[in-house]
Amino acid sequence: MTGPHDGTPGEVPEDLTDPDERRVRDLLADLGSGGAHAPGPVPADVAARLDAALDPALDAALDAGPAASGTPASSGADATVTPLQGRRPRRRAGLLAAAAAVVVLVGGGALVLGRGDPLGGAGGSSQSSADSSGSSRSDAGSEAGSDGGSTGGSSEQPEAARGGVPDLGADTLRRDVRRLVDADRSTLRGAGPDTGLDQTGCAAPDRPGRARAVTLDGTPAVLLVRTLPDGTTAAQVWSCEGDRVLAGTRFRAAAPRP
C-alpha cells in the first residue's frame, strides 16, 4: 500500500487532513446518490462490512508499530502501546474512507481518484474519446459509401445520367460513346424503336443507324450509332431537332462477349 501523502510503500497513513477527509466523504455520498443529493455519511452497513474486512490487516499493521516503517521503537510498554491505541481510530477512519472509495469506484467503473487529477476527468475523457471515435467511424463510413457509389456509377455509364439519359462530353466524346456502346450494345445495335426519344422530345435524324436520346454537355441531343463495313463504329451527336451534327467520333468496338 502506498501512503497518499509521501508515496512511501508499506506505510499506513496516520491521518487524513480535514479537507481531504471532507472531500472523500462528499465524493462517496455524491456517488451513492448519483449526484442528486447533498453529501452525507457513509451508509452504516457499508462501513460495518469495510470495518470487518479491514480489521485484521489494520491490527497487524498497528501491532507492527514503528518497526514496519524503519523507525526505532521507544522503550517501555506505555511508550509503545498507548500511542498506537490512540492512533487506531483515526487510522481506521482514514482507511475506511479510502476503502469505501475503492469499493465505489470498482463497482461503478466510471471515476478514477488520483492525486493531482480532477475528479470526473477520466470519465469525461473516456466519454469524449468514445464520442470522437464514434464520430470518426461515422465520417469514414460516409466517405467510403460516397467513393463506392461514384466508382460504381462511372464504370457503367459515361459521366452522369440525367433521368436515365446519358450525358456525353464534347471533350470526352469517344470515351463516353465507347462506354455507352459497351454497356448497352444490345440497345444501340439491335432492332427496335428509338431509345429515350419520347422522354426528351427530340427527333431522330433521317439517317441509317441506331438513335438514342442523350445530352451533350447538358444540352438535349440524339446519338446516332452505326457499324461500318470494316467493323468500325461511327457515332454522331445530332441536335435535338435532328437537322445538324454537333459532334462525331469513330472507334473499333470491343469484341462481343460470349
From TrEMBL:
Write out the transmembrane intervals.
93-113
Q: Could you tell me the keywords of this UniProt record?
A: Membrane, Transmembrane, Transmembrane helix
Where are the compositionally biased (Basic and acidic residues) regions? 19-28, 172-187
- Per UniProt, the ranges with Low complexity bias are 62-80, 125-145
Which top-level group of life is the source organism from? Bacteria
Q: Specify where the region named Disordered lies, as residue ranges.
A: 1-43, 62-86, 120-206
**Protein name per Swiss-Prot or TrEMBL:** Uncharacterized protein
Organism annotation: Nocardioides scoriae
